[in-house]
Protein 1
Amino acid sequence: MRDDDKAKSVLKEGQFFSILRQSIMDGMKKVLGESGLQSTFYYLDLVEVFHRPAEFHKKLYSIFGKGSLALERTILTELYRRVNVPFKERKGYEFADYVDLAAFHANEGRLEYL
């Protein structure tokens, strides 16, 4: 593969963030519905933590407790579908680890998503 062809397949700067944000929105909407999504965003000010997956997890956990894990699984399934990688649960992984792995795959082995 030529260098310029490879560059086309790697996400542009900020593109993964956009994919992550949309995956979060769609995943939460699937589980909570539109009104639940809007209420949660307002209550937790989630817009501020989209780009910080560990902080995002903490905020979700603060309201949903262990129920946040099912919500996160739905979000991660959306995210992995969008980066064209099958989602597979891994022992010891947390939400931020899965996001990092998706970013790694989306950028062909480079961990860049901010």
Protein 2
Amino acid sequence: MTTALSAANDSVFLRSDYALLSAAILDIVGQKVATTVLGVLSFLRFSMAAISPLIAGYLYQNFGMKAVLFFVAALFAISAAIFASADFNTRILHEK
């Protein structure tokens, strides 16, 4: 039961933005490099999904749960900063 709730929570809150982020990034880079960008996005998502549990486990064993929560918060802060600094109108303005 807990695993099902965890999977549902993960799908609803964390994975639901994949299509939106992919579409936004593809709007910026254009059609010429779309397949390359999608490959890089998939690789980065896989890399973070593979490495983050190892880092979180190390932090939990050596520093406790508070360190894991700070790690997750730092990941969200970094991605928010990257997302906030993106100029989504660059390609759209140049095409007009």
Protein 3
Amino acid sequence: MARRPSSCKIGAMEILLREARLARGWTLRQLADATGISLGAISLIERNQRMPSIENVYKFAKALGVSPSTLVAGEERDDFVAYIERIALSMPEEQRDQLRAIISAYIDTLPPQQ
């Protein structure tokens, strides 16, 4: 897993993950067991100290019965975003990191939403 830059504007994944886990009534251990992701890694993600890989977002979503976009954005995404997610999953990690950097840089250029 890559460390999340302190200026990352991707969203509140850590809050959304914790909310989805608690809504299911699960402990960190139960989520770790269901996903195969270490308890320590999940704890770091929920405390906003690590950013999960795309694969791990999908593992969380499957285990918790929510869509990956719900965990990342708090809402269902449109077809374009789903398309980007599918492409990103087929990329090597280095290319996904580059794509993430490009998208983050683009988002930084957008005017604030009202």
Protein 4
Amino acid sequence: MEGSFVSTFDGDRLDASLLLMGELQFVEPDDPRFIGTLRAVEKHLQRGDFLLRYDEEDDFDKEILKDLFEWDYQLKPNSIAASIYVSWEKEIIREAIN
């Protein structure tokens, strides 16, 4: 992103955690590149009242995540993670049927 900080050296991806640079006094809040970062994050990562941290596929293995939710379901069947696991399983079944 021209005129803004990005998530990695020689990269071109935004990361909303870059907004902490002013708070952590890494740069001055009126630094032109920081202001460019703020504008770029608003333009590319804001979704209504919400803000994505980044807008790209991550490399977190969805099967590992599913296994963690299943494990939590077995330990605490009434937890939030358990309800996510049950919803996930229902969606998988729905997709298989259709």
